[in-house]
Amino acid sequence: MQIGMLGPLEVRTDDGGSADVPGARLRGLLVALALKPGHVVPKASLIDWIWGEHPPADATNALQRLVSRLRKALPGAVVEGRTEGYRLAVEPDAVDAVRFERLVTAGRSRTEEPPRRARLLGEALGLWRGAAMQDIGLRESAAFDAAVARLQELRLTAAEERADAEVALGHGAEMVTELTDLVAAHPLREPLVAALMRALAAAGRDSEALLVYQRTREALADALGVGPSPELAALHIALLRGELRQGPGQREESRKTNLRAELTTFVGRGADVAAVRGLIAEHRLTTVIGPGGSGKTRLATETARTLLGDLPDGAWLVELAAIGADGDVAQAALTGLGLRDTLLGGAPKAELADRLIAAIRERDALLILDNCEHVIEAAAVFAHRVLGECRRLRILATSREPLGITGEALWQVEPLGLPEGDASPDEIESSPAVQLLRDRAGAVRRDLAVGHRTTMARVCRALDGMPLAIELAAARLRTMSI
């Protein structure tokens, strides 16, 4: 005989037929015995299960009458009487709820490999045909209600555990629909939310995972007045850091920088790169200062590019030129780091720095704050706080003036070296300013002759060796003669 209670009550006989068990109390008695297959259930427990706090005056006789009716409804002599109670003589696996618990216990064991865990938990969940004991209806039985709640809770736990096992096997995308439905039904259940976030991240749908977190945070605040648990918050941070994108057995090479590939060669600043590298190695905040057009940004990015192999979490350019004088440096940093702050639930600006710090707190990275001069105070406050809370982070800033923070190292960018007025042809040719002009001019004019050296030196002197001015002059040679 097979007894199913994970859904409508179902009793299957050995010959493939079904047995009818009519009435809530008779069904309740069968379920109480079936949950303890092969074990004697005390009469007091059965009375409490069936009648709750309002048993009849002759409860023992009433129970005996129910047992008699149940024996007639079931095939064979499966209901056995004992002095202390009654026993259902069936194998444990003949009861779907008991088998479900056995499979879940085995599937949750961390000693099992993910493929076997996923199979066991999937088999357990496959036993469900609806809500547990949905057509029993013992209205005043606290014991019955507790058993139903326990099975439903175990079902949700099994779903969470199975989702984790499937994600570990690289099947996250296949779990998204099922988990989305479960989260919709149980929006405050954080382990389910965590399972859905992992499945979405494994499927490459990070933005949706962030939205799931945001909705859960709002639901918890509205319904309970609390925030997400530390575990869910930690998962959110891991998602922001991109740590959930790696699938099983595969180590995806994470993007380590947002520095763009340059279209031109880097000329004349080799010594500066070496010097700035040295400052970064010794100081957590280095600021490259100089007038506009002196090449601060290019020096910073080229220096950072040489450090990529030494930075486990990469180098990230934060472009501040585009934000207004009252712009938010933290928001620009979130954008530069690719953390998609617009998906963080439209948090007030005051929260953005907190979220950024949470995401990068343990990163061993270089942050390049470019063009700080028009937001110098905000950039200084931001750098001071981030460096104070992110111990492994370093900042390389570019500005026309220092940030003015204790511990800041400065590197003054000088104009490119110019040839003297009486310089020899070889000295002119080796001058950094002339090298830059020749390199850029050669890209637009193929007919530049060696005899132009003196003229090129004169042009570079007139432009004071400023890289931007030299590049603009070289671009004009497309339509002008030298």
Automatic annotation (TrEMBL):
Annotated GO biological process: phosphorelay signal transduction system; regulation of DNA-templated transcription
Q: Which GO terms describe its molecular function?
A: ATP hydrolysis activity; DNA binding
Cross-referenced InterPro entries? AAA_22, AfsR-DnrI-RedD_regulator, BTAD, OmpR/PhoB-type_DNA-bd, P-loop_NTPase, Sig_transdc_resp-reg_C-effctor, TPR-like_helical_dom_sf, WH-like_DNA-bd_sf
Q: Where is the OmpR/PhoB-type domain?
A: 1-90
Recorded coiled-coil stretches: none
Name the SMART domains for this protein.
BTAD, Trans_reg_C
Family the UniProt entry places it in = Belongs to the AfsR/DnrI/RedD regulatory family.
- Name this protein carries in UniProt: Putative transcriptional regulator
